[in-house]
Amino acid sequence: MNITDLLKQAEEYLNQDKYDEAIALYEQCIEAAPNVKSNYWQLGLALLLAGREEEAQACWFSVLFEGEPEEIERLTKELLDILQIEGIKYLETGKYEQAEKIYFQFVEQDPKNPIAYKNLGNVLYSQGKLEEAIAYYQEGIELEPNDAITYYHLGNAFHQLNRLEEAIAHYQQSLAISPKSPTVLNNLGNSLQRKGKFEEAIACYQQSITLDSNNALTYNNLGSVFNSQGKMEEALACFQQGLNLEPDNVESYNNLAVSYQKHRQYEKALECCDRAIEIKPNYADAHWNRALILLRLGDYERGFIEYEWRWQRKENQPRFLPKPIWDGSNIEGKTILLQAEQGIGDLIQFIRYVPLLVKLGACIIVESHQQLVRLLRNVEGIDKVVAIGETLPEFDVYIPLLSVPRILGTTLETIPATIPYIAPLKEVRFPLDDSDESYLKVGIVWAGNPKHLDDRKRSTSLQQFLPIFNISHITFYSLQKGPKAAEISEISLPINLVDLNSKINDFADTAAVIAQLDLVITVDTAVAHLAGAMGKPVWVLLCYNPDWRWMIDREDTPWYPSVRLFRQNRSGDWQEVLERVAQTLTEFTRCAL
User: Fold this and answer.
1) Could you tell me which of 310, 227, 219 has the C-alpha nearest to residue 545?
2) How confident is the model at residue 2 (pLDDT cuts 50, 70, 90)?
3) Which of 210, 226, 242 is the last residue before a domain boundary?
4) Do 139 and 165 contact (CB within 8 A), yes or no?
5) Which positions does the entry assign to TPR repeats (predicted)?
6) Position 101 pLDDT exceeds 80
């Protein structure tokens, strides 16, 4: 085989990641033509990619340091040109580990080259090594301060890390250098939107569209901001324009589905999800939204199957354990771990499945939020409760808790609703002082966990509850926890409300209080689920488009027979809801006394 054929075959081996074979052929080429410098560059490259970095450098240096300074400079440039070409090739083909090795060498050989730092940053960013990418982007900026593209890349990295202020600052710096970049304006809008600066985000998206009116992504982003503001017509127009530009854009269909859901047009939302899935069968977000719609409509058989797509979404990564996931097979005599997921309310709602698993012959271990551990240890059928993060005991199989309904084939008619399934601990003493025995005892909660994605919609303020405090023969008790409990001290008027915040340490204490109450009035929080699981009369105040589990257009719920639902008739209108509650509570009090 002549040298030309050897080089061609060596290059093929290199492209196939067969480094040892490539190294052997390049060595043959050098032996046959020792004065051809390019063969040394290629041999060093093959050695580098094979993980033999020191040998690669020795190979290159054996050539670089043999000539005069002018010759060394020329040969170094020749080597760097090859590294640049190869680095870009591997970067563009998604071979990031190889590209990273090459660019690290590029930077080492030419530490004053800003392009090398930028490309190394790109390689690291593509691998999710965001902090390292930022460091190299910043090195590049120091060498070339007016590089708008590198500022843009820095903005992207900070955005991915949710360091939004820094992302915004770097996008703005990029625009200060190059103000007419629709891409940078779009991404700046994304950071502003996530920061809650909706009007500024809208301005960025609109400016981006002015510069490039054919970008479907920007229309989608603008529509999502309008959607979050409740501006349905504007949102729909943007999503539709996105589809006009890209008829098969699954994100546009998914965003349309979200918009229709928010405005309770569920059939249209389903059509959009179905179309997105038709175009891209494995599009997890569309499956997820389809699940929420089906569950909201009471189609649990299909809804819980689609609900499994939650694990394919980047926002909801599964926690794998070193044992099999239960698939519904025989578990008689086995120990099953019910894995906690989502919020405390979810755990309370779905722990109802324990008796069914006990009937299948299983021993039950429950992983729980710390605030629920003491209370769940009192639930019949549970053998052991461990807090999230604690060392798990031995078990045979496990399952995320909200996958149990699918495994057991839950339908609207077969929801396990034997109430109560949670009871207060007998040893927990929580006397309610300042209570007139002739008065009704009513607990209230006006806000949920502020970290919940939809907390802004589902929570209200204590101020909104003021109309009910004027109803006579009731003692009100605040079960509110968290920062919102401070609102009690902010009310200037005297109100008939006993603040239990400082006395309640966990949900065992909350259950002890609820057991002594005649009624609980709450927004959609864990307390609603706890009171419902205890069989206590509970009125749940719901936003215009509430969570799927409360379904649609009904005042009751098959999950909790003792629950009555008070829904918003207009988005954000808590005043009308509380007026209905006050009227109903007046009648409730009259009948109870």
Assistant:
1) 227
2) low
3) 226
4) no
5) 3-36, 80-113, 114-147, 148-181, 182-215, 216-249, 250-283
6) no
